[in-house]
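Treating backbone geometry as a discrete language has practical consequences that deserve illustration. Part of our work consisted of pairing the sequence of a single chain with a tokenised description of its backbone. What the numbers capture is local backbone geometry rather than side-chain detail. For completeness, the protein is quoted in full, as a sequence line and a line of structure tokens:
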Amino acid sequence: MYAKNRIKHLVSLPIQADECEKSYKIAKVLEPGRSERTNEADSDAPDRDTPDSDASRFPFPASPSPICGCVVINCAFLEIPLSARIHIPWRLPHVRKPYAKIGAAVALLLVLSNCSGNNNNGNNASPSASESVTPSASNSPVATGVTGTSFENWGSYGFTLANNRHAPYTEITADNINELGVIWSHDLKTLDADVKNGNQSYPVVVDGVIYLTTSGNQVFAFDAVTGNTIWHWKPDAEQAAGFSKAGIIANRGVAVGEGKVFTLAVDNSLIALDQKTGELIKMIKLSDYIDGVTIENGYYETTAPQYYKGNVYIGSSGSDNGVRGFVAAFKASDLTPAWDSPFWTVPPKGEDWLANSKFQGGGAVWDPAAIDEETDIMYFAVGNPSPDFYGAGRPGDNPHTDSVVAVNAMTGELVWSKQEVSHDMWDYDAAASPMLINATVKDEKKKLVVQGGKSGLWFAWDAATGDVVWDAVPFAKIDKKDPTPEGTVSYPGVLGGENYAPEAYDPATNYVLIPGIEQPSKFKSATNEDEAATPDFPGAAAFGTIYEAVESEPGYGTVTAIDVNTGKQAYQIKTTDAQRGGLTSTESGLAFFGELDGKINALDIKAGKVIWTFQTSGDNIQAAPAVFTVDGKEYVVFTTGGTKPKVHVFGLGGDKTQGEAGQAETGSAHSG
């Protein structure tokens, strides 16, 4: 049952100006038996990392409707569930069942007390950017609508469905970059004490609203200019309590379409929220349609979904736990399957190359697909086979694993598949989202699909045919050896190469920018399949068996520019920390990226030099920014994680005060 999924929606009611005191107080009406939340930061352990369209389709009404259960008077609010739904489970795929909807009682409490004087003349205007920096839960700004009248969006995970992470905006340049500063910031734990550590959310920005997620699968909608909270959705306590069963807890964002915001929860739930209000429209469990896709069996979700032509496209995580990877499509209208069946990335246990294996598994899809809107072909990256480090039970190349796969987005039928690493023994996923680019190759224009893997190798294929254009271009140290029971050291290590962090493309230079990790691992294998098949929890033995860090080589990061015309490196720069977030480029020749110690950088793409840095007080950065404009002004939005989940929005003329560097938190996760 998914009841009481709460929505906190802030709306304003006019009250007498001289009746409101400046020292605002919060009055909360809580559900029976529910204790009041505090604003204290939680004591979670540091986060566990994963190795971790067209914008006009997404209309956003000018002003949110005051239908939720929060009334702001004397800066007070009450929080109540808007609706509750009973989920009727079933197991057979593609059999539709109704949701029974329970009407939720809605009560409004008006709190009028402790009034003295205020000179706001009866206006509940949104606070200015300078006033709204890092508000606490007790003075969360009141949403009165979206600031601005004209918008240039960042409409999906990778800007467009091509995932090339290139924004055609030019206000911020190399000449004025030193005027860039913080317009507003929020500490997400202060907005809600239930926010968990870690954040790998890639923001989506549509018509002046920033949509982002947290590692605990909450969703926030902010006014992009002021930082005002428009709405905030969170799973109920019962659902959230089950998230700890997942091997990796991360969420990489949302998709927006048809007036809805779509997101995946780590427990394999697909969720549709009202884009305007954040109210829950529908939630399904993937196991309602795909047998066995449960967190108890080792499945979980990290990826952001993609919306295209009425469908929501998702991938699956958890294949390191010995479960089969897949890609699936659901109708955005009702979250029922859009394809006859999922596209499975590996065969069932007992068939094909898993004919004699004690396992079935491999082929996770960690990140969103790229979609060609001219051909309806979808391209996604697929992870390693399992067991990760023991291959005797899975002979041969293990097709579709460590690969980029192209399918028909309307039917799920295979178009082509190209493998980066055959019979992988090192957890060398193709983890990051592929990019679809129109680039110059040997002085001729071609439509390409490009992707860099944890193997430390970068590839380019003809988008239509899958023919190789550039093959296995190295961007990291390559020195791999088969794992042994005693252990062997290989480069790259278990983190890559290029992990889940996305690349960016710059059309002006024809460069692909790759976020890299230079760090070895010591890989140890089981001595036989029986040994590898001894689980601590379902699927855990699929690692087969362990890897270790090499203490003498803590590693560092790189940004590598590949000239697509020649297939060779144009340059490579070194960064102190492993590159875990990815890059975003702009038309003015800049690329923005963050680091694990909290530093944000601007790279002059043509020169190959970092020309601006900003320290965010050690806010661990593991996602690339989105770039957008409102009324012609350009903004850059980053999310940060570690023990300080935050959102920072930068613009020209913002606050240039910087903080102290933090401790880089790389985590121990091995995969996409």
Q: What stands out?
A: Residues 6-652 form a domain with the Methanol Dehydrogenase; Chain A fold (CATH 2.140.10.10). Confidence is low (pLDDT under 50) at residues 1-144, 536-542. The helical segments are 188-191, 237-241, 529-532. The radius of gyration is 24 Å.
